[in-house]
Structure formats: structure tokens, C-alpha cells
């Protein structure tokens, strides 16, 4: 990933940390609502993560929980991510 913590459901990240920022993955309508509430692009400034926004500072715990719940519900509706096959050959015990 990018060296920080992420919360995943079925292989899809719904929430992550980048420095002090908490980012959530949202559908288009919720992204617009969060932008209107002060949400900004999430991740490195030169390459923010598509579909993720940073929760604005100063949210109450209940407000943040509401956005996290929306993110979790959005990601729960996505198909599970298939595991990529390992690029390393399997070792057999000798």
C-alpha cells in the first residue's frame, strides 16, 4: 500500500490513514456531499487516491462515524477483490 494503515472488507479498502489524515472511499453522491462539508483528496498531493476523500478536521466522533459507515456500506456492495497469484515460486520442503 503506501506505508500506513488501511481497513479492508473483502479485499477492498474502505478507510485508511495517510499521516494524520483519515480517508474514506465513497460513491459519487457521497463524495460530493463530503467535498461540500470540507473533504479533500486523500493521499499524496502529487497522486491522490481516486474515489477516496479525507475527512475534514474538526468533525465530531458521531459525524466521522457517519462517513465511515457510508464508506463501509459502499465498499460492502462492491465485488470482492480476487487475490493475485504469487509471483514467487513455491518452495517444497527437502
Largest sheet: 5 strands, antiparallel
Structural class: alpha+beta
Order of helices and strands: EEEHEEH
**What Rg is obtained from the alpha carbons, in whole angstroms?**
16 Å
The number of helical segments is: 2
Please render the helix and strand layout as text.
Elements lengths: L5 E4 L2 E7 L2 E5 L2 H9 L3 E2 L10 E3 L6 H16 L18
Antiparallel strand pairs: 1-2, 2-3, 3-5, 4-5
Write a structural description:
The chain is α+β, with helices and mostly antiparallel strands. It has one domain (6-76). Helices cover 27% and strands 22% of the residues. It has helices at 28-36, 61-76, and strands at 6-9, 12-18, 21-25, 40-41, 52-54. A 5-stranded antiparallel sheet has the order 1-2-3-5-4. The radius of gyration is 16 Å and the shape is elongated.
Summarize the structure.
This protein has 94 residues and is an alpha+beta fold. Helices cover 27% and strands 22% of the residues.
Structural key phrases:
2 helices, 94 residues
